[in-house]
Amino acid sequence: MRRSFFAVLLLFVLSPLALAQKEPSRTAAKDGRVAARLPRAALAAMESISAERMRAHVKFLADDLLEGRGTGARGGDLAALYIATQFELDGLQPAGDHGTWFQKVPLVGITTQPESTFTLLPDQGPPMPLKLGDDYVTTDERQEAVGDIDAPIVFVGYGIRAPEYKWNDFKDADLKGKVLLMLVSEPPSDDPAFFKGKALTYYGRWTYKYEEAARRGALGVILIHKTEMASYGWEVVRNSWSGEKSYLRGGDEPHLRAAGWVQLAVARRLLAASGLDLDQLLQQANSRDFQPIPLRARLAAHLVSRIRTFESSNVVGLLPGSDPARKDQALMYTAHYDHLGIGPAVDGDRIYNGADDNATGCAILLELARAYASAAERPPRSILFASVTAEEQGLLGSQYLGQHPPLPAARLALDLNFDDVQPLGEPEEVEVVGAERTTFYPVVEHTARTFRLEIVPDSNPSAGYYYRSDHFSLARVGVPAFSLNEGDKFQGHPREWGDQQHKQFTAKHYHQPSDEYRPEMDFTADAALARFGFALGWKAASLPGLIQWQPGDEFEAARKASQASAGGRP
User: Fold this and answer.
1) What's the pTM value of the predicted model, to 2 decimals?
2) What is the distance between the alpha carbons of residues 450 and 452, in angstroms, rounded to a whole number?
3) Which CATH number fits domain 36-91+320-565: 3.40.630.10, 3.30.9.10, 3.40.120.10, 1.10.150.20?
4) What are 32-88's pLDDT values in tens digits?
Protein backbone atom coordinates (compact mmCIF):
# COMPACT_ATOMS: atom_id res chain seq x y z
CA MET A 1 0.00 0.00 0.00
CA ARG A 2 1.36 3.44 -0.89
CA ARG A 3 1.65 5.69 2.15
CA SER A 4 1.44 9.43 2.20
CA PHE A 5 4.54 11.56 2.80
CA PHE A 6 3.12 12.51 6.21
CA ALA A 7 2.74 8.85 7.22
CA VAL A 8 6.30 8.11 6.09
CA LEU A 9 7.59 11.12 8.04
CA LEU A 10 5.80 9.95 11.17
CA LEU A 11 7.23 6.47 10.73
CA PHE A 12 10.82 7.74 10.78
CA VAL A 13 10.41 10.49 13.36
CA LEU A 14 8.19 8.67 15.84
CA SER A 15 9.14 5.06 15.17
CA PRO A 16 11.10 4.52 18.43
CA LEU A 17 7.94 5.25 20.42
CA ALA A 18 5.44 3.78 18.00
CA LEU A 19 7.22 0.53 17.37
CA ALA A 20 7.69 -0.16 21.07
CA GLN A 21 3.95 -0.11 21.75
CA LYS A 22 2.11 -3.39 22.22
CA GLU A 23 -0.85 -2.26 20.15
CA PRO A 24 -0.83 -0.55 16.74
CA SER A 25 0.02 3.14 16.93
CA ARG A 26 -1.66 5.90 14.99
CA THR A 27 1.13 5.69 12.47
CA ALA A 28 0.30 2.08 11.59
CA ALA A 29 -0.78 1.65 7.99
CA LYS A 30 -4.06 -0.08 7.29
CA ASP A 31 -2.31 -3.26 6.19
CA GLY A 32 -1.21 -3.84 9.76
CA ARG A 33 2.49 -3.32 9.31
CA VAL A 34 3.02 -2.76 13.02
CA ALA A 35 2.63 -5.99 14.99
CA ALA A 36 2.44 -6.39 18.75
CA ARG A 37 5.26 -7.81 20.83
CA LEU A 38 7.93 -7.69 18.18
CA PRO A 39 11.28 -6.00 18.88
CA ARG A 40 12.04 -2.78 17.02
CA ALA A 41 14.62 -4.49 14.81
CA ALA A 42 12.03 -7.04 13.70
CA LEU A 43 9.47 -4.34 12.97
CA ALA A 44 11.96 -2.36 10.93
CA ALA A 45 12.86 -5.46 8.91
CA MET A 46 9.18 -6.26 8.40
CA GLU A 47 8.57 -2.72 7.15
CA SER A 48 11.20 -3.24 4.46
CA ILE A 49 9.19 -5.98 2.73
CA SER A 50 8.51 -4.72 -0.78
CA ALA A 51 5.66 -5.55 -3.15
CA GLU A 52 7.77 -4.40 -6.09
CA ARG A 53 10.65 -6.71 -5.25
CA MET A 54 8.10 -9.52 -5.27
CA ARG A 55 6.87 -8.36 -8.66
CA ALA A 56 10.41 -8.62 -10.01
CA HIS A 57 10.83 -12.16 -8.67
CA VAL A 58 7.52 -13.31 -10.15
CA LYS A 59 8.27 -11.63 -13.48
CA PHE A 60 11.52 -13.58 -13.76
CA LEU A 61 10.33 -16.93 -12.40
CA ALA A 62 7.27 -16.92 -14.68
CA ASP A 63 9.19 -15.85 -17.78
CA ASP A 64 9.12 -18.12 -20.84
CA LEU A 65 12.89 -18.48 -20.40
CA LEU A 66 12.22 -20.86 -17.49
CA GLU A 67 9.87 -22.98 -19.62
CA GLY A 68 7.31 -23.51 -16.87
CA ARG A 69 9.83 -24.66 -14.23
CA GLY A 70 9.22 -28.36 -14.88
CA THR A 71 10.54 -30.84 -12.32
CA GLY A 72 13.93 -32.13 -13.41
CA ALA A 73 13.86 -29.86 -16.46
CA ARG A 74 16.16 -27.01 -17.46
CA GLY A 75 13.70 -24.34 -16.35
CA GLY A 76 13.14 -25.91 -12.95
CA ASP A 77 16.90 -26.11 -12.38
CA LEU A 78 17.26 -22.45 -13.39
CA ALA A 79 14.61 -21.48 -10.85
CA ALA A 80 16.41 -23.42 -8.11
CA LEU A 81 19.71 -21.71 -9.00
CA TYR A 82 18.04 -18.28 -8.97
CA ILE A 83 16.55 -18.90 -5.51
CA ALA A 84 19.86 -20.18 -4.14
CA THR A 85 21.61 -17.10 -5.53
CA GLN A 86 19.12 -14.83 -3.77
CA PHE A 87 19.65 -16.70 -0.49
CA GLU A 88 23.40 -16.28 -0.87
CA LEU A 89 23.06 -12.56 -1.63
CA ASP A 90 20.97 -12.21 1.53
CA GLY A 91 23.73 -13.74 3.63
CA LEU A 92 21.97 -16.93 4.66
CA GLN A 93 23.92 -20.10 5.34
CA PRO A 94 23.46 -23.06 2.98
CA ALA A 95 21.51 -25.88 4.65
CA GLY A 96 21.39 -28.46 1.86
CA ASP A 97 23.57 -31.49 1.21
CA HIS A 98 27.29 -31.31 2.05
CA GLY A 99 27.31 -27.59 2.78
CA THR A 100 25.48 -26.61 -0.42
CA TRP A 101 22.18 -24.83 -0.99
CA PHE A 102 20.64 -27.92 -2.57
CA GLN A 103 19.03 -30.96 -1.01
CA LYS A 104 19.02 -33.50 -3.82
CA VAL A 105 15.70 -35.32 -4.25
CA PRO A 106 16.06 -38.71 -6.05
CA LEU A 107 13.20 -39.16 -8.52
CA VAL A 108 12.03 -41.36 -11.32
CA GLY A 109 9.99 -39.84 -14.12
CA ILE A 110 7.33 -41.80 -16.02
CA THR A 111 5.75 -40.57 -19.24
CA THR A 112 2.88 -42.59 -20.72
CA GLN A 113 3.52 -42.86 -24.44
CA PRO A 114 0.92 -42.27 -27.20
CA GLU A 115 1.14 -45.89 -28.38
CA SER A 116 -0.41 -47.04 -25.10
CA THR A 117 -3.90 -48.52 -25.36
CA PHE A 118 -6.69 -48.52 -22.78
CA THR A 119 -9.86 -50.43 -23.66
CA LEU A 120 -12.93 -51.19 -21.57
CA LEU A 121 -14.45 -54.56 -22.47
CA PRO A 122 -18.08 -55.08 -21.39
CA ASP A 123 -19.28 -58.68 -21.31
CA GLN A 124 -22.03 -57.57 -23.67
CA GLY A 125 -21.67 -54.88 -26.28
CA PRO A 126 -18.76 -53.52 -28.28
CA PRO A 127 -15.33 -52.71 -26.83
CA MET A 128 -14.74 -49.13 -25.64
CA PRO A 129 -11.28 -47.99 -26.77
CA LEU A 130 -10.34 -44.77 -24.97
CA LYS A 131 -8.24 -41.88 -26.22
CA LEU A 132 -5.31 -40.80 -24.04
CA GLY A 133 -5.83 -37.28 -22.72
CA ASP A 134 -9.37 -36.90 -24.04
CA ASP A 135 -11.00 -39.87 -22.30
CA TYR A 136 -8.43 -41.05 -19.76
CA VAL A 137 -5.02 -40.48 -18.22
CA THR A 138 -2.90 -43.09 -16.50
CA THR A 139 0.59 -43.81 -15.18
CA ASP A 140 2.33 -47.12 -14.60
CA GLU A 141 3.54 -46.61 -11.04
CA ARG A 142 5.60 -49.81 -11.22
CA GLN A 143 8.10 -47.91 -13.33
CA GLU A 144 8.37 -50.46 -16.13
CA ALA A 145 8.77 -49.57 -19.79
CA VAL A 146 6.00 -51.96 -20.90
CA GLY A 147 3.11 -53.35 -18.89
CA ASP A 148 -0.09 -55.18 -19.74
CA ILE A 149 -3.42 -55.48 -17.95
CA ASP A 150 -6.32 -57.84 -18.52
CA ALA A 151 -8.36 -57.72 -15.33
CA PRO A 152 -11.94 -57.49 -14.06
CA ILE A 153 -13.27 -54.14 -12.86
CA VAL A 154 -14.89 -53.65 -9.44
CA PHE A 155 -16.73 -50.51 -8.36
CA VAL A 156 -15.68 -49.71 -4.76
CA GLY A 157 -17.50 -46.45 -4.07
CA TYR A 158 -15.09 -43.89 -2.65
CA GLY A 159 -12.34 -46.46 -2.09
CA ILE A 160 -11.95 -45.50 1.57
CA ARG A 161 -11.32 -47.41 4.76
CA ALA A 162 -11.60 -45.05 7.75
CA PRO A 163 -12.08 -46.96 11.04
CA GLU A 164 -12.46 -43.75 13.05
CA TYR A 165 -15.59 -42.97 11.02
CA LYS A 166 -16.77 -46.61 10.94
CA TRP A 167 -16.39 -46.57 7.17
CA ASN A 168 -15.12 -49.37 4.92
CA ASP A 169 -15.94 -49.37 1.22
CA PHE A 170 -13.98 -52.58 0.67
CA LYS A 171 -15.70 -54.80 3.24
CA ASP A 172 -14.09 -58.27 2.91
CA ALA A 173 -13.85 -58.31 -0.88
CA ASP A 174 -10.80 -59.93 -2.45
CA LEU A 175 -9.44 -57.18 -4.70
CA LYS A 176 -6.06 -58.67 -5.52
CA GLY A 177 -5.35 -58.39 -9.23
CA LYS A 178 -8.50 -56.33 -9.88
CA VAL A 179 -8.97 -52.86 -11.34
CA LEU A 180 -10.90 -50.62 -8.96
CA LEU A 181 -13.33 -48.04 -10.29
CA MET A 182 -13.94 -45.41 -7.65
CA LEU A 183 -15.24 -41.94 -6.94
CA VAL A 184 -13.01 -38.99 -6.22
CA SER A 185 -13.52 -37.10 -2.93
CA GLU A 186 -15.33 -38.65 0.07
CA PRO A 187 -18.86 -39.08 1.49
CA PRO A 188 -20.54 -35.65 1.76
CA SER A 189 -21.28 -34.45 5.27
CA ASP A 190 -22.26 -31.42 7.31
CA ASP A 191 -21.23 -33.14 10.54
CA PRO A 192 -17.73 -32.09 11.72
CA ALA A 193 -17.46 -35.46 13.49
CA PHE A 194 -17.93 -37.35 10.22
CA PHE A 195 -15.10 -36.87 7.70
CA LYS A 196 -14.77 -33.35 9.20
CA GLY A 197 -18.01 -32.15 7.65
CA LYS A 198 -17.58 -30.03 4.53
CA ALA A 199 -13.79 -30.02 4.84
CA LEU A 200 -12.11 -32.67 2.72
CA THR A 201 -9.80 -35.02 4.61
CA TYR A 202 -6.84 -36.95 3.23
CA TYR A 203 -9.19 -39.85 2.54
CA GLY A 204 -10.63 -37.82 -0.32
CA ARG A 205 -7.32 -37.21 -2.06
CA TRP A 206 -6.36 -39.25 -5.11
CA THR A 207 -2.99 -40.02 -3.54
CA TYR A 208 -4.67 -41.84 -0.64
CA LYS A 209 -6.93 -43.80 -2.97
CA TYR A 210 -4.00 -45.08 -5.03
CA GLU A 211 -2.03 -45.94 -1.90
CA GLU A 212 -4.91 -47.84 -0.29
CA ALA A 213 -5.75 -49.75 -3.46
CA ALA A 214 -2.11 -50.80 -3.88
CA ARG A 215 -2.00 -51.99 -0.26
CA ARG A 216 -4.96 -54.24 -1.07
CA GLY A 217 -3.18 -55.81 -4.01
CA ALA A 218 -5.20 -54.08 -6.74
CA LEU A 219 -3.68 -53.97 -10.19
CA GLY A 220 -5.07 -50.57 -11.10
CA VAL A 221 -7.37 -47.71 -10.12
CA ILE A 222 -9.67 -45.68 -12.35
CA LEU A 223 -10.95 -42.52 -10.68
CA ILE A 224 -14.19 -41.09 -12.02
CA HIS A 225 -13.73 -37.39 -12.67
CA LYS A 226 -16.64 -35.16 -11.70
CA THR A 227 -15.86 -31.46 -11.62
CA GLU A 228 -17.97 -30.69 -8.54
CA MET A 229 -16.33 -33.49 -6.59
CA ALA A 230 -12.76 -32.93 -7.76
CA SER A 231 -13.04 -29.12 -7.43
CA TYR A 232 -11.41 -28.67 -10.86
CA GLY A 233 -12.24 -29.50 -14.46
CA TRP A 234 -10.98 -32.27 -16.71
CA GLU A 235 -8.47 -29.95 -18.37
CA VAL A 236 -6.63 -29.72 -15.02
CA VAL A 237 -6.42 -33.51 -14.84
CA ARG A 238 -5.32 -33.76 -18.47
CA ASN A 239 -2.69 -31.04 -18.18
CA SER A 240 -1.33 -32.36 -14.89
CA TRP A 241 -1.07 -35.97 -16.13
CA SER A 242 -0.23 -35.61 -19.81
CA GLY A 243 3.47 -35.03 -19.24
CA GLU A 244 5.98 -36.77 -17.03
CA LYS A 245 4.79 -37.98 -13.63
CA SER A 246 7.46 -38.23 -10.97
CA TYR A 247 7.88 -40.53 -7.98
CA LEU A 248 10.42 -40.71 -5.20
CA ARG A 249 13.00 -43.39 -5.79
CA GLY A 250 13.46 -46.08 -3.20
CA GLY A 251 11.04 -47.53 -0.69
CA ASP A 252 9.28 -50.85 -0.77
CA GLU A 253 5.65 -49.73 -0.74
CA PRO A 254 3.37 -51.41 -3.33
CA HIS A 255 2.49 -49.64 -6.57
CA LEU A 256 -0.26 -49.86 -9.15
CA ARG A 257 0.20 -51.00 -12.72
CA ALA A 258 -2.27 -48.29 -13.78
CA ALA A 259 -3.13 -45.23 -11.69
CA GLY A 260 -5.56 -43.19 -13.70
CA TRP A 261 -8.71 -41.15 -14.26
CA VAL A 262 -11.57 -41.28 -16.76
CA GLN A 263 -14.07 -38.69 -17.88
CA LEU A 264 -17.48 -38.82 -16.23
CA ALA A 265 -19.19 -39.71 -19.53
CA VAL A 266 -16.85 -42.68 -20.01
CA ALA A 267 -17.69 -44.04 -16.56
CA ARG A 268 -21.38 -43.58 -17.22
CA ARG A 269 -21.16 -45.63 -20.45
CA LEU A 270 -19.12 -48.36 -18.75
CA LEU A 271 -21.58 -48.72 -15.89
CA ALA A 272 -24.57 -48.69 -18.23
CA ALA A 273 -23.01 -51.60 -20.14
CA SER A 274 -23.09 -53.52 -16.84
CA GLY A 275 -26.73 -52.60 -16.24
CA LEU A 276 -25.90 -49.97 -13.63
CA ASP A 277 -26.79 -46.30 -13.28
CA LEU A 278 -24.03 -43.94 -12.14
CA ASP A 279 -26.39 -41.54 -10.36
CA GLN A 280 -27.89 -44.40 -8.35
CA LEU A 281 -24.42 -45.66 -7.49
CA LEU A 282 -23.48 -42.20 -6.24
CA GLN A 283 -26.32 -42.44 -3.75
CA GLN A 284 -25.47 -46.00 -2.72
CA ALA A 285 -21.82 -45.05 -2.19
CA ASN A 286 -22.87 -42.53 0.48
CA SER A 287 -23.99 -45.32 2.81
CA ARG A 288 -21.90 -47.31 5.30
CA ASP A 289 -23.74 -50.37 3.99
CA PHE A 290 -22.23 -50.04 0.53
CA GLN A 291 -20.77 -53.28 -0.86
CA PRO A 292 -18.21 -53.52 -3.71
CA ILE A 293 -19.91 -54.23 -7.04
CA PRO A 294 -18.10 -56.40 -9.61
CA LEU A 295 -18.84 -55.05 -13.08
CA ARG A 296 -19.58 -57.20 -16.08
CA ALA A 297 -16.53 -55.70 -17.74
CA ARG A 298 -12.74 -55.91 -17.88
CA LEU A 299 -9.90 -53.51 -18.59
CA ALA A 300 -7.46 -54.46 -21.34
CA ALA A 301 -4.50 -52.10 -21.40
CA HIS A 302 -1.08 -52.02 -22.97
CA LEU A 303 1.01 -49.35 -21.25
CA VAL A 304 4.18 -48.08 -22.84
CA SER A 305 6.20 -45.69 -20.69
CA ARG A 306 9.35 -43.66 -21.00
CA ILE A 307 11.34 -44.05 -17.78
CA ARG A 308 14.14 -41.77 -16.60
CA THR A 309 15.90 -41.47 -13.27
CA PHE A 310 17.05 -38.03 -12.23
CA GLU A 311 17.53 -35.66 -9.33
CA SER A 312 15.79 -32.41 -8.60
CA SER A 313 16.59 -30.12 -5.68
CA ASN A 314 15.02 -28.48 -2.68
CA VAL A 315 16.75 -25.16 -2.02
CA VAL A 316 17.40 -24.65 1.70
CA GLY A 317 18.91 -21.69 3.53
CA LEU A 318 19.42 -21.06 7.25
CA LEU A 319 19.57 -17.96 9.42
CA PRO A 320 21.07 -19.03 12.78
CA GLY A 321 19.19 -18.01 15.91
CA SER A 322 20.54 -15.75 18.63
CA ASP A 323 19.80 -17.84 21.72
CA PRO A 324 22.45 -20.52 22.42
CA ALA A 325 19.79 -22.63 24.17
CA ARG A 326 17.29 -22.48 21.28
CA LYS A 327 19.31 -21.92 18.10
CA ASP A 328 19.35 -25.68 17.40
CA GLN A 329 15.56 -25.40 16.95
CA ALA A 330 13.99 -23.64 13.99
CA LEU A 331 10.96 -22.03 12.44
CA MET A 332 10.55 -23.05 8.78
CA TYR A 333 9.08 -21.20 5.79
CA THR A 334 8.25 -23.17 2.64
CA ALA A 335 7.05 -22.53 -0.92
CA HIS A 336 7.33 -24.73 -3.99
CA TYR A 337 9.08 -23.40 -7.08
CA ASP A 338 8.10 -26.06 -9.63
CA HIS A 339 5.21 -25.95 -12.07
CA LEU A 340 4.12 -28.10 -15.04
CA GLY A 341 6.83 -27.16 -17.53
CA ILE A 342 5.97 -27.59 -21.21
CA GLY A 343 2.71 -29.44 -21.91
CA PRO A 344 -0.29 -29.68 -24.23
CA ALA A 345 -0.84 -26.54 -26.28
CA VAL A 346 -3.75 -24.28 -25.34
CA ASP A 347 -4.43 -21.51 -27.87
CA GLY A 348 -0.99 -22.15 -29.30
CA ASP A 349 0.85 -21.78 -25.97
CA ARG A 350 2.68 -24.81 -24.50
CA ILE A 351 4.54 -23.12 -21.62
CA TYR A 352 2.79 -23.46 -18.25
CA ASN A 353 4.43 -20.45 -16.61
CA GLY A 354 2.90 -20.79 -13.13
CA ALA A 355 2.95 -17.11 -12.18
CA ASP A 356 0.34 -17.33 -9.43
CA ASP A 357 1.07 -21.01 -8.83
CA ASN A 358 3.64 -20.66 -7.39
CA ALA A 359 6.02 -17.88 -8.39
CA THR A 360 4.04 -15.76 -5.91
CA GLY A 361 4.87 -18.06 -3.00
CA CYS A 362 8.55 -18.06 -4.02
CA ALA A 363 8.54 -14.25 -4.13
CA ILE A 364 7.14 -14.13 -0.61
CA LEU A 365 9.74 -16.65 0.58
CA LEU A 366 12.55 -14.62 -0.98
CA GLU A 367 11.35 -11.38 0.58
CA LEU A 368 11.02 -13.04 3.97
CA ALA A 369 14.57 -14.35 3.70
CA ARG A 370 15.90 -10.93 2.75
CA ALA A 371 13.94 -9.19 5.51
CA TYR A 372 15.06 -11.59 8.24
CA ALA A 373 18.68 -11.43 7.11
CA SER A 374 18.57 -7.61 7.10
CA ALA A 375 17.28 -7.34 10.67
CA ALA A 376 19.63 -5.72 13.17
CA GLU A 377 19.03 -8.62 15.54
CA ARG A 378 17.92 -12.22 15.13
CA PRO A 379 15.12 -14.22 16.76
CA PRO A 380 16.08 -16.76 19.44
CA ARG A 381 15.47 -19.79 17.24
CA SER A 382 16.96 -20.30 13.82
CA ILE A 383 14.94 -19.70 10.65
CA LEU A 384 14.91 -22.18 7.75
CA PHE A 385 13.81 -21.16 4.26
CA ALA A 386 13.00 -24.06 1.95
CA SER A 387 11.85 -23.71 -1.65
CA VAL A 388 10.80 -27.20 -2.61
CA THR A 389 10.53 -29.08 -5.87
CA ALA A 390 7.94 -31.51 -7.32
CA GLU A 391 4.89 -30.17 -5.50
CA GLU A 392 2.88 -30.53 -8.68
CA GLN A 393 3.97 -34.17 -8.83
CA GLY A 394 2.33 -34.99 -5.49
CA LEU A 395 4.23 -32.97 -2.84
CA LEU A 396 7.35 -35.04 -3.49
CA GLY A 397 9.96 -32.39 -2.68
CA SER A 398 8.38 -31.51 0.65
CA GLN A 399 7.79 -35.21 1.37
CA TYR A 400 11.52 -35.80 0.99
CA LEU A 401 12.25 -32.69 3.07
CA GLY A 402 9.98 -33.99 5.83
CA GLN A 403 11.68 -37.37 5.75
CA HIS A 404 15.17 -35.79 5.67
CA PRO A 405 14.83 -32.41 7.43
CA PRO A 406 17.90 -30.18 7.95
CA LEU A 407 17.09 -30.38 11.66
CA PRO A 408 15.20 -33.24 13.32
CA ALA A 409 11.43 -32.82 13.07
CA ALA A 410 11.24 -32.68 16.87
CA ARG A 411 13.23 -29.43 16.75
CA LEU A 412 11.05 -27.69 14.17
CA ALA A 413 8.70 -25.27 15.88
CA LEU A 414 6.37 -24.60 12.94
CA ASP A 415 6.17 -24.61 9.15
CA LEU A 416 4.49 -21.64 7.45
CA ASN A 417 3.78 -22.29 3.79
CA PHE A 418 2.85 -19.98 0.89
CA ASP A 419 1.17 -21.32 -2.22
CA ASP A 420 -0.67 -19.39 -4.94
CA VAL A 421 -1.19 -16.01 -3.25
CA GLN A 422 -2.91 -14.13 -6.05
CA PRO A 423 -1.85 -10.47 -6.54
CA LEU A 424 -5.27 -8.86 -6.21
CA GLY A 425 -4.72 -5.79 -4.02
CA GLU A 426 -5.14 -4.91 -0.35
CA PRO A 427 -6.50 -7.93 1.60
CA GLU A 428 -8.87 -7.50 4.50
CA GLU A 429 -9.17 -11.21 5.23
CA VAL A 430 -6.76 -14.07 5.76
CA GLU A 431 -7.15 -17.85 5.60
CA VAL A 432 -5.00 -19.88 7.99
CA VAL A 433 -6.61 -23.29 7.57
CA GLY A 434 -5.03 -25.74 10.00
CA ALA A 435 -3.69 -23.11 12.40
CA GLU A 436 -6.65 -23.81 14.70
CA ARG A 437 -5.34 -27.36 15.07
CA THR A 438 -2.20 -26.10 16.83
CA THR A 439 -1.42 -24.51 20.18
CA PHE A 440 -0.16 -21.49 18.21
CA TYR A 441 -3.65 -20.42 17.14
CA PRO A 442 -4.20 -17.80 19.90
CA VAL A 443 -1.06 -16.04 18.66
CA VAL A 444 -2.37 -16.21 15.09
CA GLU A 445 -5.70 -14.69 16.19
CA HIS A 446 -4.02 -11.88 18.11
CA THR A 447 -1.63 -11.09 15.27
CA ALA A 448 -4.44 -11.04 12.72
CA ARG A 449 -6.34 -8.51 14.83
CA THR A 450 -3.22 -6.38 15.05
CA PHE A 451 -2.89 -6.47 11.28
CA ARG A 452 -6.59 -5.58 10.81
CA LEU A 453 -7.11 -8.91 9.06
CA GLU A 454 -10.22 -10.97 9.67
CA ILE A 455 -9.57 -14.70 9.89
CA VAL A 456 -12.08 -16.46 7.66
CA PRO A 457 -12.71 -20.18 7.18
CA ASP A 458 -11.63 -22.03 4.08
CA SER A 459 -13.74 -20.61 1.25
CA ASN A 460 -13.78 -23.99 -0.52
CA PRO A 461 -13.42 -26.68 2.17
CA SER A 462 -14.52 -29.49 -0.13
CA ALA A 463 -11.37 -28.94 -2.23
CA GLY A 464 -9.21 -30.22 0.64
CA TYR A 465 -6.47 -27.63 0.24
CA TYR A 466 -4.89 -28.56 3.58
CA TYR A 467 -3.90 -31.91 2.05
CA ARG A 468 -2.83 -30.46 -1.30
CA SER A 469 0.08 -28.20 -0.38
CA ASP A 470 3.56 -28.65 1.04
CA HIS A 471 2.79 -27.93 4.69
CA PHE A 472 0.97 -31.30 4.73
CA SER A 473 4.26 -33.14 4.21
CA LEU A 474 5.67 -31.51 7.34
CA ALA A 475 2.48 -32.18 9.30
CA ARG A 476 2.74 -35.88 8.42
CA VAL A 477 6.03 -36.10 10.31
CA GLY A 478 4.57 -34.20 13.26
CA VAL A 479 5.63 -30.60 12.59
CA PRO A 480 2.80 -28.09 13.25
CA ALA A 481 2.21 -26.61 9.82
CA PHE A 482 -0.26 -24.58 7.79
CA SER A 483 -0.45 -22.21 4.82
CA LEU A 484 -1.24 -18.50 4.80
CA ASN A 485 -3.44 -17.03 2.10
CA GLU A 486 -5.85 -14.22 1.42
CA GLY A 487 -9.61 -14.43 1.77
CA ASP A 488 -12.16 -12.98 -0.64
CA LYS A 489 -12.48 -9.45 0.79
CA PHE A 490 -10.14 -6.81 -0.65
CA GLN A 491 -10.08 -3.12 0.07
CA GLY A 492 -12.33 -1.18 -2.29
CA HIS A 493 -14.24 -4.25 -3.45
CA PRO A 494 -17.17 -6.29 -2.17
CA ARG A 495 -16.45 -9.83 -1.05
CA GLU A 496 -18.21 -11.12 -4.17
CA TRP A 497 -15.50 -9.53 -6.31
CA GLY A 498 -12.73 -11.50 -4.61
CA ASP A 499 -14.77 -14.70 -4.78
CA GLN A 500 -15.27 -14.12 -8.50
CA GLN A 501 -11.54 -13.50 -9.06
CA HIS A 502 -10.57 -16.73 -7.30
CA LYS A 503 -13.19 -18.80 -9.10
CA GLN A 504 -12.21 -17.30 -12.45
CA PHE A 505 -8.58 -18.23 -11.84
CA THR A 506 -9.52 -21.83 -11.01
CA ALA A 507 -11.78 -22.12 -14.04
CA LYS A 508 -9.60 -20.38 -16.65
CA HIS A 509 -5.98 -20.25 -15.49
CA TYR A 510 -5.23 -22.93 -12.87
CA HIS A 511 -2.73 -25.37 -14.45
CA GLN A 512 -3.16 -23.58 -17.75
CA PRO A 513 -0.57 -21.76 -19.90
CA SER A 514 -2.55 -18.57 -19.18
CA ASP A 515 -1.24 -18.47 -15.59
CA GLU A 516 1.26 -15.82 -16.67
CA TYR A 517 2.72 -12.63 -15.26
CA ARG A 518 0.68 -9.54 -16.09
CA PRO A 519 1.78 -5.94 -15.49
CA GLU A 520 -1.55 -5.08 -13.85
CA MET A 521 -0.95 -7.57 -11.02
CA ASP A 522 -1.19 -5.80 -7.64
CA PHE A 523 1.34 -7.39 -5.27
CA THR A 524 0.03 -5.47 -2.27
CA ALA A 525 -1.69 -8.70 -1.25
CA ASP A 526 1.53 -10.70 -1.36
CA ALA A 527 3.42 -8.06 0.62
CA ALA A 528 0.68 -7.98 3.26
CA LEU A 529 0.73 -11.77 3.58
CA ALA A 530 4.53 -11.69 3.80
CA ARG A 531 4.43 -9.16 6.66
CA PHE A 532 1.79 -11.18 8.46
CA GLY A 533 3.89 -14.32 7.98
CA PHE A 534 7.01 -12.49 9.15
CA ALA A 535 5.32 -11.48 12.40
CA LEU A 536 3.97 -14.98 13.00
CA GLY A 537 7.33 -16.56 12.28
CA TRP A 538 9.28 -14.24 14.55
CA LYS A 539 6.80 -14.86 17.37
CA ALA A 540 6.93 -18.63 16.88
CA ALA A 541 10.73 -18.45 16.91
CA SER A 542 10.59 -16.52 20.19
CA LEU A 543 8.17 -18.62 22.24
CA PRO A 544 9.59 -20.25 25.38
CA GLY A 545 8.53 -23.74 24.25
CA LEU A 546 7.79 -25.50 21.00
CA ILE A 547 4.36 -25.41 19.38
CA GLN A 548 2.27 -28.59 19.57
CA TRP A 549 -0.82 -30.03 17.90
CA GLN A 550 -4.08 -29.81 19.80
CA PRO A 551 -4.88 -32.97 21.79
CA GLY A 552 -6.53 -35.58 19.60
CA ASP A 553 -5.40 -34.09 16.30
CA GLU A 554 -4.52 -36.60 13.59
CA PHE A 555 -0.88 -35.42 13.60
CA GLU A 556 -0.41 -35.34 17.38
CA ALA A 557 0.91 -38.90 17.51
CA ALA A 558 3.61 -38.14 14.94
CA ARG A 559 4.70 -35.09 16.97
CA LYS A 560 4.92 -37.12 20.16
CA ALA A 561 6.79 -39.89 18.39
CA SER A 562 9.39 -37.52 16.95
CA GLN A 563 9.94 -35.88 20.31
CA ALA A 564 10.11 -39.24 22.08
CA SER A 565 12.77 -40.41 19.63
CA ALA A 566 14.71 -37.27 20.53
CA GLY A 567 14.65 -38.36 24.17
CA GLY A 568 11.98 -35.86 25.08
CA ARG A 569 14.47 -33.03 24.63
CA PRO A 570 13.84 -31.41 21.23
Assistant:
1) 0.87
2) 5
3) 3.40.630.10
4) 333 348 999 999 999 999 999 999 999 999 999 999 999 999 999 999 999 999 999
